[in-house]
Amino acid sequence: MIAFFVLIFAPFCMGLLPAMAMPGEGSRGEKGQGKEREGKRRPSVYICPTAVYLSGLLLSLAAFQIFAVPVILLKVWGFPLIVKGYSLFLFLGAAAGLAAGYSILLGYIERAKRLFSDKRRPSVETCLYWALAVGLVLFQIYMAYTRAFFDGDDAYYVVQSVIAQQSDVLYRVLPYTGLSTSLDIRHALAPLPLWEAYIAEVTGIHPAIIAHSVLPLVLIPATYLLYFRIGAKLFRADGRKTALFLILVSLLQIFGNTSIYTNATFFLMRTWQGKSLLCNLVLLSEVWILLNLWEGQKNGKGKESQAGWWLVLCASHTTAALCTTMGAFLAGLLVAVTGLVWAVREKRPALLIPLAACCIPCIVYLLLFVVLG
């Protein structure tokens, strides 16, 4: 139950906060209904629950990075402070999200009522496509959970989690030898193993089990939720095409183990590692966020309606720094190149200003690495 609160419930509730500043989706997922209901007053806001959860997951991971790095730099035995402070943050963030996001929750209730009363049903072919897509995702989760194996990086990253949980020491012990050392600044600025140690501490599950068995149950579905959101955006919420898109992605991942360095290998066999989380979740989330921002600007929606997406983009950059030190550079580079193309295409140089502001977390952590390294 604690793992469910930390990994599912609290992120979803926190995702309601930025969702309040996102444009409502209305009935966009159903063909023809947008025009039929055009002009009618919508009493509540509807934001897809998958978008809310993904936004909250990025916010929760970014918050851990912001809270953990100062503690690592200033306190040698600071792990208990991280556990207490971050637990308090998750509780307050979940409570604030539930209090502020009541209109979105009402939208879910109304949406459920409309779905039950709607006599139209998807075709058999579409249902089969979705059944196959969901089955492939469940197959990957099952294999990742039941075929967990030792990886060479366990000797460093998992041991860092164990050291933090058992001795409260933060990056001042060499995992290979157990001897004391100076602060390992390269890894200290990307404390994803401490996040795994935190989950292990509050749940009572060993860090190795958290890394190899628990996190794949969360991170693999979260990654496919991102693919689902991107597919729905690219194919204009066409359910059949989105399902085919997910099937294609699943096949590429399942049969992508052509070497130990491929994206698919890291996704299914090293799901818990920072470099895998960066490439498969964080950078993918930035593509999703940029698609939503571009659509909002193209449709002429005001800056206020896009504030939630800008906040989530900033959180995504911070999460990239949590995964690996190089992540801060790669995330900033992705947004810089995309923003430059976007500004030139739309002939709006002003777009570079908010995009640059969202890269401030990346710049801060890169400067820390240069100064302290």
Structure description:
With 373 residues, the chain is mainly α. The protein is built from 17 helices and no strands. The chain has one domain (2-372). Residues 26-43 have low confidence and may be disordered. It has helices at residues 2-19, 33-36, 49-74, 79-100, 102-117, 124-146, 157-167, 185-188, 192-203, 207-234, 239-254, 263-269, 274-298, 307-323, 325-346, 352-358, 360-372. Helix 3 (49-74) crosses helix 14 (307-323). The longest helix is centred in the middle third of the chain and has 28 residues, at 207-234. The two termini are 40 Å apart.
Summarize the structure.
The protein has 373 residues and is mainly α. The chain has 17 helices and no strands.
Please compute the radius of gyration using only Cα atoms. Answer: 21 Å
Main sheet attributes: strand count, strand direction, barrel closure: none
Uncertain regions spanning at least 5 consecutive residues:
26-43
Number of strands: 0
How far the N terminus sits from the C terminus, by CA atoms, comes to 40 Å
Mean pLDDT: 89
Structural class based on helices, strands and sheet pairing: mainly alpha
Please report the number of helical segments: 17
Number of domains: 1
Strand content: under 5%
Helix content: over 70%
Order of helices and strands: HHHHHHHHHHHHHHHHH
Outline? globular
